[in-house]
Structure formats: C-alpha cells, structure tokens
Amino acid sequence: MPKSPRAMRTMKDKLHFCLPFLVVFLLWEYAAAQGFWSSYILPSPARVWGTLLHMLQNGELIQHIRISLQRILWGFLWAFLASCLLSSLNLLFPRLRNGYSGLLEVFRHVPPLSLIPLLILWFGIGELPKTIIIVLASFFPMYLNMDDGFRRCDRKLLEVGQMLGFSPWKSLWKIRLPAALPGILTGLRIGMGYSLRAIIGAEMIAADSGLGFLILDAQAMSRSDKVIIGILTIGALGLILDGFFVLLERKALYWMH
Amino acid sequence: MDALILDHITKTYGSRTVLQDLSLSLFSQECTVILGKSGCGKTTLLRLLAGLEQPDTGTVSRPAGLKLGMMFQEARLFPWLTCRENVALGLPPGSSPREADHWLQLVQLTEAADQYPSQLSGGMQQRASLARTLAMHSGLILMDEPFAALDYFTRAQLQQELRSMQQELSMGTVLVTHNVDEALTLGDRLLILKEGKIALEEHLPPGKRDLLSPGLIEAKKRLLEELA
User: Fold this and answer.
1) Domain count, chain A
2) What is the ipTM of this complex?
3) What number of other Cβ atoms are within 10 A of residue A114's Cβ?
4) Is A255 close to B50, i.e. CB distance below 8 A?
5) B3-66+141-227 has which fold?
6) Neighboring chain B residues of A164 at a CB cutoff of 8 Å
7) Within 13 A of A40's CA, how many CA atoms are on the CB side?
8) Which of B68, B82, B89, B129 would you mutate first to test chain A, the one with the most A CBs within 10 A?
9) Is the pTM for the entire model greater than 0.90?
C-alpha cells in the first residue's frame, strides 16, 4: 500500500537523523578492525557493546544514570526557580536589578568548574557542591532567556492589558509570561544541555557514583570502553531530555503551530 | 452627562508640538469623531484620554466611575488565546465566561469562537477586538482608526454594524480617523484637529446616515475645505 506524503517525509527525516550515526559507527568499526590504533585507545564497537550489556545486566549503568539524573534534575530545578524569581523581581521592581546585575555579570563569565576548590572548602564533599555546580551551569541561559522574554514583551499587548485594568501581577501572568514562553522554553532546553555538560565537573567532587564518576573512574582504570559508554549515555540522556522539551514546546506553544 | 475633560493640554515630541493648549470636553452617550490628516496628533489625543500617555502641561479629568475601553488600529488580540478567551478577558470580574458568547454573537463571530487569532481574517480579528471592548461594559469607547487596515467592503460593513450598536447600546464613542466618510457615517459630533488645536466643530442629527443626502454632502464639503 503506498504511503502518504507525510509518512514518507517522516521516514525521510528519521533516515536523515540516523544516517550520520551509521556512518560514524561504520568508520569506527572499520578503524577498529584495521587495527589503526590499539584496542586500549579505541576499543571495537563489539567490545563496547559487550561491556554495555554487562553493565546493564549487573545494574551498574542504571545506578549511575539514576544518580546523575537525580543530580541534574535537582540542580536544574533550583536554577529554574532562581531564574523565575529573579526575572519576576526584575519586572515588578525594576530598580532592584541594579543591585545585583553587576554581580551576576561577573558570575556569568566564571566557569563553574573553577569554583570547585572553594565549594569543597565551604560545603564539604556532599551533594550540595555538586548541585551548586549544576545550578551555576544551567542558571544563566535560563535566566537570560526568561528575563529577555519578559522585558521584550510587545508593548502593544501590554497597553491592551492596561486598558483592561490588569494589575502588574496579572499583566505578568496573563501577558508577559505567555509572550515570553518561546524564549523561556529555549532557555530551558539550553539550560538542560548545560546541566548535562556540568555533570562531569560536579562528579569530580569526591563522587562514588554517577556518569561523571563512571567516566573519570574508567579513565583512571584505563577502561576506554567504559569511558565511551559514559559519554554515549550522557549524549543519549541529552537527546531524551531534549525530546521531552520539544514535546513540551509543542504542547505549550500550540497557538504557534 | 459624564464628560471627559481635557484642560489646556500641550504635548510635544522632541521639538515637534503635537497638541497645543487644547481644551475639550467629550461626552459619553454620543459619538465624537476627531478628524485630521496623518500626523496631526489624533492618536496622541486618544492615548492621552486613555491614560496611556501623560501631557506635558494641562490635565485630563475623568469622572469617577467612568470606565474607558479602547480599540486600537490593530486588533491586538492575544495570539495564545482563542477568540472566546480574548473576549472573556474584557468581561467585568465575576461575570460568567459564557457571557463572551453573547458579545461574539453580536459581532457575528459565534462560529469562530474557538479559533485562534492567526486563523482569523483581518476583519474577523477587528470584530473580535470590538467584542472584547464591548464586553468591558465601558462608559466610553475610544477607537483609534479601528477599520483603517481593512478593505473597502469590510470597512463599510463594520461601520454600519458599529453605528447600529452605538444606537442599540447607547454607547459613547470617541473615534479618530482621517476618513471623512467614516466620520460622517458614525459621528454625532465631528471635530477637526489641525495644528494641535480644534479647527472646526460640526454636529450631525441622530439616526441612520445617507452619505448622498444634501445635508451630509454640504457637511462633507465644509470638512474637506477645512482639512485641505
């Protein structure tokens, strides 16, 4: 039975998405089979696959994923709440911004990893410094997009709110928030990506589990197959989480489609 | 009769004086049309009345309890809300959201109640905007060239509908336009704004308007002479 043009397009899109993965995999397989590098430097896909199955069977990988995901989501949530709070304060009390904008600008340019020594000194080696690293990594893209979205709201729509007798709070809730939603969701997607990137840094702080720990530990043990599994797992997690945000975007921005 | 009073208003933008020592009373329950060429300060005047801008000197007094509604040149509907939800935003607190349907019916948009603004034509969007303004139950509606962006036929139809609604609902309106025919179709009191001041005032009899009647042809001549 002939497929509809839409179904054909979807299939084509999927093929375009998968093709680069297939090419990389084939090149990898070829390079490993030819023995260009020793298996210590580049293990074969078969060996990585075997290790992956083993790690899945004994629950080791799932445990690392669970711990890292917990840290990522926790840090991401705090960063999101802080972004909401600060950008709302900026709007409702514009003068307040001058009080902390300089400080934020300085911190925006400081790599979170550079704070690890101080964070360990101040907060020890528990979960708190790990969360702070993730918060610092994901806060700025979320905050800047949210703040920008709120501030750049169409003045014409705000005037409608004024004529409808909206209070500043109602105007924020009914006009600025929906108008800023596309920017906010973009900020969330970028922020989530940054949280994932920060997990290695966060798990450099005396961790004994998590994907960052898995990679660093495998490096110390010269297990490049496990390093590759750790990297690919973070990538796959990113893809899944980003997919979730794409769905959220479609749902929340129904009026744009 | 409630009146909105402008007292010795001056408004400048940079070195350009748009309104100069303007004094004017605008009454609810009549349709005042402010006519003038583009850039003569009509929209500024309306925005001052609405409280969206402040005068450099002079005062705008609004009687206590007089609620103002405003319809802009563009429909300015919230794109994330359906037609019905947009109209419901205009309803006074405590009203049932279903009351929006009544206003949508009045502007003949019942069919489009669940559609988003991007799914509506320009004329339909302006109707929805009118319904939202009407839903506010305001004592005086300010209209800033609301039909300027529409084609001739849609504009003529909406003008007729607005005229009927004005009479049916005893609705006070202040409309600014550069279209003399629109002014003659809708206005009870016509004011020509020129060089920041009221240059001419005309009063027209109530009732349905025939633009080809001798009285209106004469009025049109006077208005055009003053505008030229």
Assistant:
1) 1
2) 0.88
3) 9
4) no
5) Rossmann fold (3.40.50)
6) 89-90, 136
7) 4
8) B89
9) no
